[in-house]
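dude i think i finally got it to work??
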Amino acid sequence: MPGLTIGDTLPDLVVETTHGKIKLHDYVDNAFTIIFSHPGDFTPVCTTELGMMAAYADKFAERGVKLLGLSADDVESHNEWIKDIEACNKGSKVTYPIAADPDRRIIKQLNMVDPDEKDSSGQQLPSRGLHIVGPDKKIKLSFLYPASTGRNMDEVVRVLDSLQRASKHKIATPANWKPGDKVVISPSVSSDEAKQMFPQGYDAVELPSNKDYLRFTNVD
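look at this
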């Protein structure tokens, strides 16, 4: 399914992982799930990234979020590499599964193929991609980084917090939002509806247009 992006349903693939065979929809079940790919095992940036995923595992678990790594290397390679990941990250254990994709079948269906990077045999490598999948099995957010740039895990946690709040309330999060900041009420919510949905109240910003679409409130 080339071009998999926000709003698309995650393909229900069966993948071999360090935790055994996994069917993606069964694995996601009713939870938010992060599926993240990396260009290759035993590479510097990827080692730091997977180590940081391990270090943040408790933060993800607190939010009920599952993790699934992926690269084109095989399971045996993953298992050996995990020793390096844990050693380089102050002992944080890699408790999440890492999927193997030696024939590059999965990365193509998940739209995680790097457009430029290739291995020594000329085969395309996985991108440094990340999909956040919702409980409905649909892609809610995607990040794509070049091989030279590692992901920021604080940003991954921040957008998860945003997505999970928006899944419970008719709100969106403004620029530079972080947990504890006010959110904005969806423009589809009328003023009368807003009073019922947000009994804690809200602040409407006075604008030159005299339209009251910019309304801030607090939600958990």
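Helices lie at 24-28, 44-55, 57-62, 75-87, 105-109, 153-168, 191-197.
im so relieved honestly
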